[in-house]
Design goal:
Elements: H1 6-27, H2 32-43, H3 56-74, H4 78-83, H5 85-109, H6 114-125, H7 129-138, H8 145-175, H9 184-193, H10 197-235, H11 238-260, H12 264-276, H13 281-306, H14 310-314, H15 316-340, H16 345-355, H17 360-371, H18 377-414, H19 420-433, E1 449-452, H20 456-467, E2 472-476, H21 479-487, E3 492-494, H22 500-504, E4 513-516, H23 521-534, E5 539-544, H24 547-555, E6 560-563, H25 564-580, H26 586-589
Parallel strand pairs: 1-2, 1-4, 2-3, 4-5, 5-6
Helix pairs in contact: 1-2, 1-13, 2-13, 3-11, 3-12, 3-13, 5-6, 5-8, 5-15, 6-17, 6-18, 7-8, 8-9, 8-10, 8-16, 8-17, 9-10, 10-11, 10-12, 11-12, 15-16, 15-18, 16-18, 17-18
The structure holds adenosine monophosphate.
């Protein structure tokens, strides 16, 4: 290649290596994130071989951060957060304070400036959204009570960090003289406590600007953005819609940063949140997903690039101390806080395991700390090493928690009660802790119908099954829809139906029929294939959008495949025939075996 093309080679090098190592990590049952970080280390300057452009990579990564935060905003339901605020808000704040204190103590021990130590502690206190959500999803915990608490906790942490990202530069710019690392934050803070107007006014200004931006978004953005998206949706162009989503996410983030001095991340978060209320949010999330994933990958690659593996040899003890704070210190604090709120042991263990890692916000804080001259580079390297190792250890932490749970519960039961009052109190507490029914158990139904997908198609099928009294259950991978189903009293499991663990919950082996009402034929084939292998006599009805898909689904075991477009056409023909007084022979419209038996099997429960 004759030309020097750093942008292209950085994107290509980053994505290709991330793909290779992500796939290897997946194979080894580790989060792909680990593979991306390793790919970054390999294209970084600290390892031999190809070195990606060190200024372009972080800039590309910034797009990943914007889209990630936009995605968080799109899923941010104020209602969910409010339902767990009683524990999530004080819990997250107490835990941030505790972890920051530990980090600060380590920094102080190493002789770092106070500001730097505080940034270090803050960076260790916040868990990665991506790692946490993936861990919860894999264990089907998102819609359980403990899952909601963990997500609420994470959102409070994220909001606190967003505020920190705004306030740290403000405090640093006032505190420092602009000529290097002279403890600007601590100087700023001490002046703040000495009622120095400089920093006070600066922080107030920042808060006013943030408030102004938030108010503008909530008043105008809330109307303008969904309205624009609806208009674009009506053009019918998927390409324009996708472009619109990107333009809004990136545009609002950039505008927020330039005009209001708000961080790109916070701007993107609000752009997502105002769209979250619109029915289009689901589609917007879907459309922005591919690009978000690609740039998020580049984000992790660029973080990996900063990491100098030599630190593992030079500073093993410091790394151990950092990991101790992240994995043990933080988790233990969360565990005790949750128990203090009289939540069950299982909940406390899940929450502490899911928070025992650090991720994207820590990287942003570390980068900011170094840029402002607060945090020594060593601190950033410790954060990076701590993140990489804690993410790798996270599945292990979940495993240990699962193992520890019966032991801890056993120990609790064996504790002798000293006096009758205490015994009674303990019995009360045990009762309070007893209903751990937020765990997902397989269905008790048999001879039932299984419906996969509860969207435009599944909803109609489901209502029909319900009114005919057929015992049935639904598998859906959108938590919004699951909430809707539960509200209607319909048994529903959340998860991707392609995953065997999800299908197993539906008691396939004794089910009478399976309706696959999802649009993706590839996934539908995988579902049909598994169902057929478990239950050779089950009736499988599937949905398709082309003749090729019909053939494929039949090949994988579907008995009847309904082709959406054909049914639409026939519906139109029907209507036209009414006007033109023509009749369409019935047998042309439906194959004889397309009628789904609504079934009259009685509701069988064990
Ligand atoms: P629609 O195309 O409107 O009928 O919506 C399809 C529905 O199926 C949506 O609600 C999706 O969340 C859901 N869905 C799509 N793929 C899967 C899957 N693999 N497992 C479970 N639910 C799915």
């Amino acid at each position: 290649m004759p030309h020097d093309t750093p942008l292209i080679s950085t994107i290509v090098g980053g994505l290709v290596l991330a793909f290779v190592f992500g796939a290897i990590a997946h194979r080894l049952r580790m989060p792909p994130l680990v593979g991306y970080l390793i790919a970054g280390v390999l294209v970084g300057p600290h390892t031999p071989g190809y070195v990606a452009d060190q200024s372009l990579a972080p800039e590309l990564a910034e797009i990943g951060v914007i889209l990630l935060m936009f995605g968080v905003g799109l899923h941010f339901s104020l209602k969910d957060l409010l339902s767990v605020r009683g524990i999530a808000v004080p819990g997250a704040i107490a835990q941030i304070a505790f972890a920051t204190l530990l980090g600060w103590a380590l920094g102080a021990f190493l002789g770092w400036p106070t500001g730097g130590s505080l940034v270090f502690g803050l960076a260790l206190s916040v868990a990665s959204t991506v790692v946490l959500l993936k861990a919860l999803q894999e264990r089907r915990l998102v819609e359980t009570e403990r899952g909601r608490i963990a997500v609420g906790w994470l959102i409070v942490e994220d909001l606190a960090m967003v505020l920190a990202l705004v306030l740290i530069p403000a405090a640093a710019s006032i505190g420092g003289d602009g000529h290097g690392p002279v403890e600007p934050l601590s100087a700023g803070l001490s002046r703040l406590f000495g009622f120095d107007l400089g920093i006070g006014a600066m922080i107030a200004m920042t808060l006013v600007k943030v408030a102004l931006f938030v108010a503008l978004m909530l008043v105008f953005g809330r109307k303008l953005i969904p309205w624009t998206m609806h208009r674009i949706a009506h053009t019918g162009s998927r390409e324009l819609f996708r472009l619109g989503v990107l333009a809004i996410a990136l545009g609002v983030a950039f505008g927020a940063a330039k005009l209001f001095g708000v961080s790109l991340a916070l701007g993107a978060f609000f752009a997502g949140m105002v769209l979250a209320e619109s029915e289009l949010s689901h589609r917007a999330a879907q459309e922005s997903l591919p690009l978000r994933d690609a740039f998020a990958v580049l984000f992790f690659v660029s973080v990996g690039m900063l990491f100098d593996p030599n630190i593992l040899i030079d500073r093993p003890l410091l790394i151990l101390a950092t990991i101790f704070i992240i994995v043990i210190g933080k988790s233990l604090a969360a565990f005790l806080i949750v128990l203090a709120f009289k939540k069950p042991l299982g909940t406390a263990l899940t929450i502490s395991a899911s928070l025992g890692q650090i991720g994207e916000f820590s990287f942003i804080l570390a980068a900011l700390g170094v840029e402002l001259g607060l945090l020594p580079e060593e601190g950033r390297d410790l954060i990076l090493a701590g993140a990489i190792i804690s993410i790798v250890l996270n599945p292990l932490l979940f495993f240990l928690c699962d193992r520890m749970r019966p032991l801890l519960e056993g120990a609790k039961r064996e504790e002798p009660a000293a006096d009758p009052a205490a015994a009674a109190a303990e019995a009360g507490a045990a009762q309070e802790q007893a209903p751990e029914d937020d765990e997902v158990h397989p269905t008790a139904l048999s001879g039932h119908a299984i419906l996969i997908g509860y969207g435009r198609v599944g909803r109609i099928v489901g209502q029909n099954l319900k009114s005919s009294g057929t015992p049935f259950l639904v598998i859906e991978d959108s938590d919004k829809r699951i909430g809707e189903l539960k509200a209607q009293g319909i048994e529903a499991f959340m998860g991707n139906a392609v995953a065997r663990e999800t299908l197993d919950l539906a008691n396939l082996s004794t089910a009478r029929s399976l309706a696959i009402a999802i649009p993706n034929a590839f996934e539908a084939c995988r579902i049909a294939e598994q169902a057929r292998s478990v239950n050779p006599s089950i009736l499988i009805v599937a949905r398709a959008h082309s003749d090729a898909e019909v053939d494929e689904l039949k090949q994988y075991g579907a008995d009847t495949v309904i082709m959406g477009e054909r049914e639409i056409a026939l519906g139109m023909v029907d209507r036209l025939a009414q006007v033109h007084h023509e009749s369409v022979p019935y047998e042309d419209r439906h194959e004889p075996d397309t009628i789904i038996p609504t079934g009259t099997a009685p509701l069988e429960k064990e």
